[in-house]
Amino acid sequence: MDDIEERLRALGLELPEPAAPLAAYVPFVRAGDLLHMSGQIARDGTGVIRGTLGQDLDAEAGARAARACGLHVLAQVKAACEGDWGRLLRVVKLTGFVASAPGFFDQPKVVNGASELMVEVLGDRGRHARSAVGVTALPLGAAVEVEAVVLLR
């Protein structure tokens, strides 16, 4: 659906190239109508967004990192759909992993960055169930990682 591309443009967003796997796994697996996506770490135009929430970064910076993860999720969805957004029925679930210092409890606020992006870009198809989990470390020192389950036609 071109409306997704139009929304991305209207929001001033550009999807990154889908990230290649860092180890022995694939970016996504389709099982029936469900697309299970591997975790997408926070990256921007300069590389991995690194840090620990509550130590190096605050919740607002973490939400920006989660938003970047969300863009990578959308890039993988587009790749899985071979560019045909009409195959996307809805985002079913996001799981956000937040590199957290002891005593940092705002993981839900951080993962909102990805959740809000899904609704901004996809409308009601972007509303989803979610988990926000604090962890001690993520691959490459990333601040946030987001994985997704998406329903396709």
From TrEMBL:
InterPro entries with a match to the protein in the record: Endoribo_LPSP/chorism_mut-like, RutC-like_sf
Q: Which Pfam families match?
A: YjgF_endoribonc
Superkingdom classification of source: Bacteria
Enumerate the spans annotated as Endoribonuclease L-PSP/chorismate mutase-like domain: 5-142
Task: Write down what this protein is called.
Answer: RidA family protein
| Taxonomic lineage of the native organism | Bacteria, Pseudomonadati, Pseudomonadota, Alphaproteobacteria, Rhodobacterales
